[in-house]
Design brief:
This protein is of the alpha/beta class. The protein contains ten helices and six strands. 34% of the residues lie in helices and 11% in strands. α1 packs across α8. The longest helix is centred in the N-terminal third of the chain and has 14 residues. The chain is globular and about 40 Å long. The N terminus and C terminus are likely disordered.
Length: 206
């Protein structure tokens, strides 16, 4: 499945999350019905705005110009995004960590989550690298509490599986996902920003 389809499915899920098509049995959120997080690789602010669509988004919405990374290199920041800390991880080597993360908080409130990662091998894989897939950008699978529970790690899925199991027209399935996290493969993560990365066209259509 290509990158454009992945983004189309993700943003369709977000559109359904506006509440128009949410099923009655889904537990409502207090402030938002759904949250969609798309993580692209860190770049300088000026470099990121060389991309036409990111520039448009910055002009239309809130632009946090003083927002920065906590650590270098990437992996500690991804862990901090979902766990509030880096759990002692200071590099990009494969790391299995113990501790609480945002998935725990969501599940405690009866809310659902999924992480869609391009190229994820599936089956609770803890593999570090596979083509454009790198585990350091998929933080949930680094938590032992997720790895050890097949039901929980089933929430981490390849983009192709997301496309097959959560089609854009399946309002009921999409509306059940309260937090959807999208991790692009290295070819689409804006490492070394180009002005017309492949996902742009689909985001604009969505």
């Amino acid at each position: 499945m290509n990158t454009l389809t992945t983004w189309r499915r993700a943003f369709a899920a977000l559109a359904l999350g506006l509440g128009l098509l949410a099923p009655a049995q889904a537990k409502p959120g207090q402030w938002f019905e759904h949250v969609l997080i798309v993580v692209l690789e860190n770049e300088a602010y000026d470099a990121a705005l060389q991309n036409d669509y990111l520039k448009e988004l910055a002009a239309r919405g809130a632009s946090f110009t003083r927002y920065g990374t906590l650590f270098k290199p990437s992996q500690p920041n991804y862990l901090a995004l979902v766990g509030g800390q880096n759990f002692g991880v200071a590099d990009n080597e494969v790391a299995d960590v113990a501790g609480a993360n945002i998935a725990d908080l969501l599940e405690r409130q009866g809310l659902t989550w999924k992480q869609v990662a391009q190229g994820f091998p599936g089956a609770c894989s803890t593999q570090g690298v596979r083509g454009d897939y790198v585990r350091k950008h998929v933080p949930f699978i680094s938590f032992k509490s997720v790895q050890a529970d097949p039901k929980r790690c089933a929430n981490v899925i390849d983009a192709g599986a997301f496309d097959r199991n959560f089609p854009a027209l399946d309002a009921k399935a999409n509306a059940q996902i309260r937090m959807l996290w999208i991790t692009c493969g290295t070819a689409d993560s804006l490492i070394g920003v180009n002005r017309h990365f492949r996902a742009t066209e689909t985001i604009q259509r969505a």
